[in-house]
Design goal:
single chain, about 80 residues, mainly alpha, about 0% strand
């Protein structure tokens, strides 16, 4: 029976490096950075596409809500 391929070593940031420590102090989420560094390009593309779809949907809903409020405001102003 063939041996399964070895799991690649997880990429980790050198937490003792001054630049990494500065990034942590500045509020950067080092765990999130490491998680993303360990994704394949295809996984990163999928994650990007999902985030983009969410942003576009939120923007569509914002515009819809804005149009509804603008219409309601016009109707209210004209009726009084």
């Amino acid at each position: 029976m063939p041996t399964p391929p070895a799991t690649p070593a997880r990429i980790t940031l050198p937490r003792d490096h001054p630049d990494v420590q500065a990034a942590a102090r500045a509020g950067h989420d080092l765990d999130l950075i490491e998680d993303n560094l360990n994704l394949t390009p295809a996984q990163r593309a999928t994650q990007h596409d999902s985030a983009l779809a969410l942003i576009l949907e939120l923007d569509r809903q914002r515009k819809k809500l804005h149009a509804h409020h603008a219409h309601a405001q016009t109707t209210h102003t004209t009726a009084t």
